[in-house]
Amino acid sequence: MKLYDTAEGKVTELTLRNPKEVSMYVCGPTVYAPPHLGHGRFALNFDILRRYFLYLNYKVIYVSNITDIDDKIIQRANQENKLTNEIAATYENKWFEDMGKLNILKPTYSPHATEYIEAMVDLIKKLVEADYAYETEDGIYLEVSKIQNYGFLSGQDVNSLKSGARVEINEKKKSPLDFTLWKLSKPSEPSWPSPFGMGRPGWHTECVVMSLQLLGEGFDIHGGAQDLIFPHHENEVAQATALSQKFAKHWVHCGFVTVSGEKMSKSLNNYTTLEELLAFHDARSLRLLILQSHYRSPLEITKETLETADNALARLDSAYRRFKDQHLDLPDNSSIKTMYSKYFEEFELAMNNDLDTPKVTSQIFNLISQANTMADNGQIQEGAEIFAVTKIICESLGLELKDSSEELDPTTLDLVAKRDAARINKDFKAADEIRNRLALLGWTVEDTALGTRVHR
RNA sequence: GGCGGCGUGGUCGAGUGGUUUAGGCAGGGGCCUGCAAAGCCUCGUACGGCGGUUCGAUUCCGCCCGCCGCCUCCA
Question: CA A161 – C1' B71 distance (Å)?
Answer without folding.
Answer: 6
